[in-house]
TrEMBL record:
PANTHER family cross-referenced by the UniProt entry: CARBOHYDRATE TRANSPORT ATP-BINDING PROTEIN MG119-RELATED, SUGAR ABC TRANSPORTER ATP-BINDING PROTEIN
Protein name: ATP-binding cassette domain-containing protein
The keyword ATP-binding is assigned to this record: yes
Presence of keyword tRNA-binding: no
Amino acid sequence: MTGTDDTPLLEVRGVGKTFGGVIALRDVSLRVRAGQVGCVLGDNGAGKSTLIKILSGVHAPDTGAYLVDGAPADFGSPRDALERGIATVYQDLAMIPLMSVWRNFFLGSEPVLGRGPLRRFDVALARRTVREELRSMGIDIRDVDQPVGTLSGGERQSVAIARAVHFGARVLILDEPTSALGVKQAGVVLRYIAQARDRGVGVVFITHNPHHAYPIGDRFLVLNRGTSLGEYAKDEITREELTSLMAGGAELEQLAHELSRSEDPPG
């Protein structure tokens, strides 16, 4: 499902960021539309973390423009971004392992009963809401009372995604959600990213793995040492071209030549 308006939910144009004398990001642009997945790829040190912090309101860009719904936006904190529907799920997920699934789901936004000194956590509503929200996204959690720490990595990611969608995320930024997962669990997370996309959420999927990005992505931004190597629609680049671009095709060819065994027998 895509929005009828072609205006991106979120867009950065030519953004740059420096820290002292270090250029962390230079002239990077990205567009995120409703019901689409924009993938940001790059190796360690490529600038992915800096871009995430700009998108999520942690850092303001030094140069370039940040737009929400086509209008300039100036965020002073992640809360400002969240109030505009831009939610970020970091690798650590901001969850407490010993707390139950439903308590983690509502952590900091607990539904309450009563007023004043009689206010109390509406436990029944919280449990019911979490069950319904997870079920609506096709997420199968055996028991919402179980501690989050007993869930698999893919299940924890799915709970974090469902939580963000429930609390009104229009843009969902996912920081390397599949990086520490095996093939099966990574597949689970990709399915839930697709569920969020199909509900009209614009997704920014940060990853270093083109094999995870290509099946789910609609657009691909490749970063290298803080600069953009290009932003491509899916019909403009193949998986092999994306992998080669990200890895540095010429460098890999040179390395393969250096590592190859000589055909000449040892003397």
